[in-house]
Amino acid sequence: xxxxQLRSRLLASGWSDDEVxxxxxxxxxxxxxxxxxxxxxxxxxxxxxxRLEIVAAVEQLAAAAVVSHASGAVLHGLPLWxxxxxxxxxxxxxxxxxxxxxxxHVHTAPLSADxxxxxxxxxxxxxxxxxxxxARTVAFEQAVVVADAALAMGLVTGEQLAVAVLxxxxxxxxxxxxxxxxxxxxxxxxxxxxxxxxxxxxxGLPAPVLQWEVLEDRRSLGFADFGWPWLRTVGEFDxxxxxxxLVRPGxxxxxxxxxxxxREDRMRDTGLGMARWTxxxxxxxxxxVADRIRRRFRPL
Length: 300
What we know:
Blueprint (H helix, E strand, L loop, with lengths): L3 E3 H6 L4 H10 L2 E5 L2 E4 L6 H15 L5 E2 L1 H8 L11 E5 L6 E2 L3 E5 L7 E4 L2 E4 L1 H11 L2 H13 L5 H10 L6 H10 L7 H12 L6 E8 L2 E10 L4 E6 L1 H7 L6 H17 L3 E6 L8 H10 L4
Parallel strand pairs: 5-7, 12-13
Antiparallel strand pairs: 1-3, 2-3, 4-5, 6-7, 8-9, 10-11, 11-12
Helix pairs in contact: 4-5, 5-6, 5-7, 5-8, 6-8, 6-9, 7-8
């Protein structure tokens, strides 16, 4: 998780405070948090940087602290959207004593042994518990991104999420978590598709079938991100990440775009209505997209 150095260990190894300060001045060490440094510069990627902050915090906190919430999602490799990395989140099995510090947010709640996992030697709440804790404490759209990804990546099952949210009965934010778990779907393959799902429902459109396979004479023409089979319409979320994911060894991005266009043309030739949208059209800007989708509906 990075070459983390603690000041206490450096001093115990014979380094002096002056030598540590010199290494910081020259950039050979960079501060992660007070008393914790990384060799070289800090990573620019916020997720990688937060992983370092997590490890540094765990090294300096009492052993009973378990990484949780958004920090737990980072360790489990779950994507986050619009969830800040300003603090490291940890949980303790206590009824009280939580605190919101400048660098660490300590949560207190019941925490069973089967809700704790190890990731690279760091104790972290299980994927199911992590998803539910996030769903209790952030907005619906942000929580759906995490829950969908956990299911799509095969890190958790719907049954495990249901058990986790049941255990949280009576806790603050549990009703919100219950709505997220009920809405979560493994068919969403990216944060953009998860956000699209939320936008579609909030716009009053019927819930689509995810990854709908379009067939013609029993021949597969491909899969659409969103499908309304009873309305002969498909929807596609266009994101740069999506095209990057589809690039195979030896392929250029332009090859993927061309293949996607051919797939779209084949679907259109069957008489399907088709609507596309991009990341910039999600959120408050989704109204025109929703109208565009409605105009494409072709009831049987």
